[in-house]
Structures are given as structure tokens and as C-alpha cells.
Design goal:
By secondary structure, this protein is an alpha+beta fold. The chain has helices at residues 2-14, 16-35, 51-62, 91-102, 141-155, 177-193, 196-224, 231-258, 263-290, 298-328, 336-343, 346-355, 360-369, 372-382, 384-399, 420-432, 452-464, 497-508, 510-517, 526-560, 564-589, 609-637, 642-669, 677-709, 718-723, 732-737, 748-756; strands at residues 70-78, 107-110, 125-135, 160-164, 407-408, 440-445, 469-472, 476-477, 483-490, 520-524, 605-606. It is elongated.
């Protein structure tokens, strides 16, 4: 592996113009294909294998044209204190509102709240239901603007008028997301490298990779059923890993130049060694993201595969375009201090060397003394037990709140009170009860019943008699009169645990009801769907972990040729992801510190969040594992004692891993700047998980375990050693074939400065 990549790096460096032109041609070709591609498909929210989805499908089958998952909206009208919406003075305003909304684009029907009797018992609140001819994703901005204008006009009558529902919500408020991530990355790279060229190169290649990925998604969207929304995760992951992988190769290039190698040889060695780590780090991320397909949710599968494609592109660009660009600026990538030292006359360099100390050993010790990563490694080396226990106890304590994790899908109740959707939600809850915002839809299939109408009536009566149900709407039959839809309103809010218990109770008593009536029924609706999705995600978590961790364990077993190192990596990951779950529960579910993030309403954690967090963070955690431990493995292969190899790994990779973690955290944290609670949750969860894994697990837990294990850390049974392929990530073959550079090429002190940078 190392030899092959060494040749690839040298070849890309030599033929830098052709390599750069080839990538530019590929990007232009894909962009041209995207510009001429067909319209992107709608994202499918289908959740195969759950009762709610089956009931939705039954509605669409038995009620042609009804579109169970079609767009809808509710316009809520609230009279001033002490008055009623049914008063004659408001009649004209309500009629005008209904007429204007009905004439809007894509609107199928609008119910008049006074004629439909959708008025609260005290007469203070009423609502009109708007149904659209298209799904929520296809409601146009013009349609939303027409609805908003009608609502604004109705407010002039003195009524409080708000609108909620899926058709109302447009694009979430944009944050500074990607711009914040790229800006912080630029600052971190500039501080790390001390060179504008070295700082700009990873950003250029990362942006090029993301642009290629997003253009590919658009170009293939129609053929593969992917929409532009599929690219959100791909963009986030692509920026993060693209910068990190290029950062690792550029850092190794500078290190090899500091050892005295010429630019061509340094590029080959950088790709042969650091490039090997990039390949296997990328494979772990691809495994974690592509593994989302085992869950069986089409939207998650598409997101995972698109993001995995972004990682593959980032790896290919790092192995080819990065060394090619190094060829255009071979010396500009070096720190200014090193460039000055190279341009100084030989006598001056000798005097500079002796001023810093009596020899290379003194220079090395001086360099180590000024490097925080080496000082920290020495500290861990001296006190491994306290560091190990401290990191484990800290993460374990933070993970405790995760035991109360509740999954769901926050709706309008989680939005800021400044939005009309949230105000409409609150008005309906005040006027009709908290459960009105999340009615249960019961689909009754009476085809096998002797008397379908009597069977449906019996089901309706049993629902009304169930504890926790406050009202049941009259059944709505299909044209064949053999299937009916019943709306049951719970007494509690949609995200309440009591509502979840009610759904389980209705389903548990179903057998007796079906036996007595001869009709079958299923429970669906947004509330029941969220409950079923949460259950599906929970059930899928363990199999997903087993698949991803198992495959990654085998990969790391081949990379490090050790049984204990992959086990330690998996255990450390579980600690960091557990602590991340605990932090999510503490803030977004329990509300402690929620105000600091601008979260106004707490509730259950998003159903897909655990799987997304596990998949993304596992892949990125293994990135840090490969970056850091591969240098330790390299030192062991070259004869260092295991404890000293830990220090060597930190000396060469500690600062790189730190910079990579800060960059990745900033990319994820940028998504917290949007107004949506769900975006804040995703951004916070990923950012805090990266911080825990990079700075607690990889910087404390991992080196402490390796110091305590000593030689045993690299133990591998002989039989397994013979069976495993040798991939030579540490570049041992390159050390045998590459001639040693002249030591006088760079002063020792400058060499240390470059390595530390």
C-alpha cells in the first residue's frame, strides 16, 4: 500500500499540470451534467415495516386522490378577550379569508370554520383546514406567499390569525453554517502551518471535492431518486474530511522537507505514509455512512450513500490533487522561518544551529519542551492510571442522562414563539386541548365484516371509551363504503409519554375489538408515525452498531496488526458517543442550559439523531484513531519502545489531530446558527461528540491505555498474523528503499519547528 501510494504521489507531483487539468475537466463535466439533468425526485419519507406507514398506504389505496401524506395547513382564528369568533362582525372577514385561500395556487379545498363547526366550546377559537393538491415538498413559494397574504389581511379585522401545518413551513432560517466552518478552518490552518499557501491548499481541495459531490448528486438525482436535500449531509461531511485529509498530507510533506528531502521525494513520502492513513481512515467513514442502509429507511440510505461518496471523492483528491498542487508551490508550503533558513548562507545556518544548543539532541529537547502535545504525552506517560480513570469517569458521568433518552420528532411546538406555526400550535392547544395538535388517525378495513357500517361504528365506540381519548370524530367512508377513517383526539400533547402509552393501549386492545366486529384497524397519523419511527430507530441501533463496529474492527485489525488496539478504539468510541447522548438529553430534552443555545422549547430527541450521531461520529473518531495511532505504530515498527512511541505519535500527529478536530467542530457547530431546533440539535450533537472523542478519548484515554498495555498493545496471534494481508500503513518498505537525506539540509531547530507546525 505505502509503495503504491508513494509512486502515486510522485507521479501526481511530476505531472501536476495534467492532474490538475484532469480534475478540472471532471468537475466541469459533472457541473455540465447537473445543469442539464432532469428535475430532482422528491425525498421519500416512507418508513417501510411500521404500522403507521402501512395505514398511510391503505388510505392512499382505498381513498384515491386523497394522498394521505399530502400537504395541509390550519388557519387558526382567535377572538379578542371576552368575544367569540362566531360574532356577526367577524363573518365577512372569515368569508373573505376562506375565499382568498381557496383561490390560491395548488389549493384543493378550504373548510369554512363556521359552517364546519370547527369552533371551540367557548367560541373563542376556530380553525379552517386547507388541503393542497401536492405534497409538502412540492408546495411552491407562491402558494405559501398567497396563504400568508390572506392571513395578514384577516388580521385587520381584529382577530388573531395564525397558520400552521406542513404546508406553511418553508425553508428554515439560514445560518452562517458552512461559512463559519470554512472561516474557522482558514484561521486554524494559518496558525497551524504559518503559511498562506499551506493554509489555503486544504481549503481549495475540500471545496473542490464538495462541489464535485454536490454536482454529482444533482446530475444523478433523477436517475437514482436523490434530491438536493440529500446533499446536506454530504456537504457537511465533505468539507470536514476534505480539510482534515489534506491537512494530514500537507503536514507530512512539510515534515519530510524538514528532514532534508527534496520536494518530489517529500510528496511521494507524504502520500505513501500519511496517504495510507487517509485511505484507511476514509474507509472507516465510508463503512459507517454506507452502513445506514441496513436500517431500511430510504431517506437515510440515500443520505448515507451520498455522504460516503463525498468521502471517497475527498480521499481521491487528497491522494492526487494535493501532491499535484504541492508541485506548484513546493517551498511556499513551508513555514516562513524554514524558507528563510533555506535561503540563508551555509555559515549563518551553522552559527544558528550552535546558538540553539550543543547538538541535535539539545535542539530536539528544546523543541519538545515548547510543544504542548509532547508535554501532555509525557504527562500521560508518567501518570497513565489517573488519566485513564479521569477520562473514563468524566465521560461516564456525562453519559448518565442518556438513560432517560426519549426519541420523537419535535414539531411546531419546538419552534420559536416568533413563528406563526408555533403561535397557531399554542392557540389550538388553548382552545381545543393539548391533544388536538396530534390526533390519532384510525383506518378501519371493514371488507370482511358482515355489516361494514355497524363494524366501523363499534370500533368508533370502543375508541371513544378508551381512557385518554377525549373525542372521536364521525367516521369518513370511502366510495365503496368498506373502509373508514376515524380521528381520535388524545387528552395529552403529541410528544407526551402518556400519548405514546395511549397508542400502545389502543393497539394492545385491537384483537378483542377485531374479534367482536369482524373489521381490522390500524393506528396512524403524525403522532403515531413519530412513535413508530422512534421504535424503529431504537430497534435498529444495536444491529447497526454491530455491523459498523464489526467491519471497522476488521479494518483496524489489518491496519494496526493488533487485537487490543481496535478493541480499545471501539470502547473509547462508546464512551464518547454515550457522553454525547447525555449532553443532548441534558440540554434538548431536560432543558438545562437550553437558553444558551437559543432553544425555547424542549422535548424528545429527534428519532434519527442517535443513528446519525453513531454513524458520523464513529467514522470521524476512527479518523483520529488512524491519524494518531498510525504514527505510534510507525515508531514501534522502527524500533522505539511502546511508551516512547506514544510520545513520538503525539509529537508528529498531536497538533494535526487537534487542528482537525477544531475544524470539524466548527463545521458542525456552524449548523447551530440556524433558527430551527432540529438543526441546532444536529449541529450540537455532532460538534460535542467530536470534541469528546478528539480531546478526551484520543488525547487521554487512548494514550493512557497504550502506555499501560506496553508491548501487549501490539500483540497479534501468529496464526492470525500469517492470515492477515500486510498493507504497510507505517511505510516500513519506504524506509528500506528511500535513501536518507542530508542532515545539513535544514537546521535541527528549524526541523523541529516545522514538525511541531
Amino acid at each position: 500500500m505505502a509503495t503504491l501510494l508513494y509512486r502515486l504521489g510522485r507521479g501526481a507531483f511530476r505531472r501536476r499540470r495534467w492532474v490538475t487539468l484532469a480534475w478540472a475537466a471532471v468537475l466541469l463535466g459533472v457541473v455540465f451534467g447537473a445543469m442539464n439533468a432532469g428535475e430532482a425526485a422528491d425525498d421519500s419519507d416512507s418508513m417501510p415495516g411500521i404500522e403507521s406507514q402501512h395505514a398511510f398506504d391503505l388510505i392512499n389505496e382505498r381513498f384515491p386522490g386523497a394522498e394521505a401524506e399530502g400537504a395541509g395547513a390550519r388557519i387558526v382564528l382567535v377572538a379578542p378577550d371576552g368575544r367569540q369568533v362566531t360574532a356577526s362582525e367577524y363573518r365577512a372577514a372569515i368569508d373573505t379569508l376562506v375565499a382568498e385561500v381557496a383561490d390560491g395556487p395548488q389549493v384543493a379545498a378550504v373548510s369554512d370554520p363556521l359552517d364546519a363547526s370547527t369552533v371551540s366550546e367557548d367560541g373563542s377559537t376556530a380553525y379552517a383546514t386547507v388541503t393542497y393538491e401536492v405534497t409538502e415538498d412540492n408546495v411552491t413559494d407562491a402558494g405559501r406567499a398567497d396563504l400568508t397574504a390572506a392571513v395578514e389581511q384577516a388580521r385587520t379585522s381584529g382577530l388573531t390569525v395564525e397558520a400552521g401545518g406542513g404546508a406553511v413551513a418553508g425553508e428554515p432560517p439560514a445560518g452562517i453554517g458552512e461559512f463559519l466552518g470554512i472561516g474557522v478552518a482558514a484561521v486554524v490552518l494559518l496558525i497551524t502551518f504559518g503559511s498562506l499557501a499551506a493554509a489555503g491548499l486544504p481549503l481549495i481541495t475540500a471545496v473542490a471535492g464538495v462541489a464535485l459531490t454536490l454536482a454529482s448528486i444533482v446530475a444523478l438525482g433523477s436517475a437514482l431518486g436523490m434530491s438536493t436535500a440529500t446533499g446536506d449531509l454530504a456537504m457537511m461531511i465533505g468539507i470536514a474530511v476534505g480539510v482534515d485529509y489534506a491537512l494530514l498530507v500537507v503536514s507530512r510533506y512539510r515534515e519530510e522537507r524538514a528532514k532534508g528531502h527534496d520536494a518530489l521525494e517529500a510528496a511521494g513520502l507524504a502520500v505513501g505514509t500519511a496517504g495510507s492513513a487517509v485511505v484507511f481512515a476514509g474507509l472507516t467513514v465510508v463503512i459507517a455512512l454506507a452502513g445506514l442502509s441496513v436500517i431500511g429507511v430510504p431517506s437515510l440510505t440515500k443520505m448515507g450513500l451520498a455522504a460516503a461518496g463525498a468521502v471517497v471523492v475527498a480521499v481521491l483528491i487528497t491522494l492526487t490533487l494535493v501532491p499535484a498542487l504541492c508541485g506548484f508551490w513546493p517551498d511556499a508550503l513551508l513555514a516562513r522561518r524554514v524558507r528563510k533558513a533555506r535561503s540563508a548562507p551555509p555559515a549563518r545556518r551553522v552559527r544558528f544551529r550552535f546558538r540553539r544548543g550543543p547538538g541535535r539532541g539539545a535542539a530536539r529537547r528544546a523543541g519538545e519542551a515548547g510543544a504542548w502535545s509532547v508535554r501532555w504525552a509525557r504527562f500521560v506517560q508518567r501518570r497513565p492510571v489517573p488519566v485513564l480513570l479521569g477520562s473514563a469517569v468524566l465521560l461516564g458521568a456525562l453519559a448518565v442522562p442518556a438513560l432517560d433518552l426519549r426519541l420523537g420528532m419535535p414539531g411546531d411546538e419546538a419552534k420559536p414563539t416568533s413563528t406563526t406555526e408555533r403561535r397557531a400550535y399554542d392557540a389550538l392547544a388553548d382552545g381545543f386541548g393539548p391533544g388536538f395538535n396530534g390526533p390519532l388517525t384510525v383506518v378501519v378495513d371493514a371488507r370482511q365484516a358482515d355489516d361494514p357500517r355497524s363494524a366501523v361504528a363499534a370500533v368508533s365506540d370502543r375508541l371513544a371509551a378508551t381512557a385518554g381519548v377525549v373525542s372521536v370524530a364521525p367516521p369518513r367512508f370511502n366510495a365503496a363504503k368498506d373502509t373508514a377513517v376515524i380521528q381520535a383526539v388524545p387528552a395529552t400533547a403529541p410528544t407526551s409519554e402518556r400519548t405514546e402509552e395511549l397508542v400502545h393501549t389502543i393497539r394492545a386492545e385491537r384483537h378483542a375489538t377485531e374479534s367482536a366486529t369482524g373489521a381490522t384497524f390500524e393506528v396512524t397519523g403524525t403522532t403515531a408515525l413519530n412513535i413508530d419511527v422512534a421504535r424503529k430507530m431504537t430497534d435498529a441501533l444495536i444491529p447497526y452498531l454491530l455491523v459498523v463496529v464489526g467491519l471497522a474492527f476488521l479494518l483496524l485489525l489489518v491496519v494496526f496488526r493488533s487485537v487490543l488496539v481496535p478493541l480499545k478504539a471501539a470502547l473509547g468510541f462508546l464512551l464518547s458517543v454515550g457522553a454525547s447522548f447525555g449532553a443532548l438529553v441534558t440540554i434538548f430534552q431536560n432543558g438545562h442550559g437550553a437558553g444558551l443555545l437559543g432553544v425555547e422549547e424542549t422535548g424528545p430527541v429527534m428519532s434519527t439523531m442517535p443513528l446519525m450521531l453513531v454513524g458520523i461520529v464513529f467514522g470521524l473518531a476512527m479518523d483520529y484513531q488512524v491519524f494518531l495511532v498510525s504514527r505510534m505504530r510507525e515508531a514501534v515498527v522502527h524500533g522505539e519502545r511502546p511508551a516512547e512511541a506514544v510520545v513520538t505519535g503525539f509529537r508528529h500527529s498531536g497538533r494535526v489531530v487537534t487542528a482537525a478536530a477544531v475544524i470539524m467542530t466548527s463545521v458542525f457547530a456552524g449548523f447551530m446558527t440556524g433558527g430551527e431546533t432540529l438543526l441546532k440539535m444536529v449541529g450540537f450533537g455532532l460538534a460535542i461528540a467530536v470534541l469528546f472523542d478528539a480531546f478526551v478519548v484520543r488525547m487521554a484515554f487512548v494514550p493512557a491505555v497504550l502506555v499501560l498495555l506496553g508491548e501487549r498493545a501490539w500483540w497479534l496471534p501468529r496464526r492470525l498474523d500469517r492470515l492477515l494481508p500486510r498493507v504497510d500503513v507505517e511505510g516500513e518498505a519506504l524506509g528500506r528503499r528511500t535513501p536518507a537525506p542530508a542532515l545539513a539540509a535544514v537546521p535541527d531547530a528549524d526541523r523541529q519547528d516545522t514538525v511541531r507546525a
